[in-house]
Amino acid sequence: MSGAQQTRLAGSHDVELAALAAAGDRAAFGELVRRHGSAVRGLLRRMGAAPAEADDVAQDAFLIAFERIGEFRGQGAFAAWVRKIGARQYLRRLQKERRIASLADAADEGADIAAPPDAAGRIDLDEALRALGPAERICVSMCYGAGLSHAEAADALNLPLGTVKSHVKRGLEKLRARLAPADPEERRRENG
To answer: Are both 17 and 50 inside the same structural domain?
Structure first.
């Protein structure tokens, strides 16, 4: 690929790149992968995938996106479209491994939430997500990371809508508690 073509593609909008890719321009699709690959892998890691597994699932997601690029109409962001594909691929992988059946049981056990971030005020969302139970982490990641509605997440997980809503609500409450800045009055009492 020439430098001029690379510059042209780098300056193109995602919708234009998707149209070019649908017409057979592999370089245009390569630019989409370059732009959005790390976001897809990041979402998968937040959903609970190990780094190597996130790479594998992201690669599968982009292969599917390439095969179905003609279905992308530009009505939403390409990034959201490919993240949804990645999230669904990861869930299919979980279902194959029979882990999805244990999510409801694991959610009841829950995870102990550690103290809020240290005094320096650092917030690590990935660390906070790892502190959630598996069901809560996946539901929150799907609804807020992949942009799926509660109903879409319920359908993808093959769980009742109310169950997904409960996992999301509990997960968000735990995240708020973990990520909220410590109350100065409470801090004074602790330091006594």
So the answer is: yes
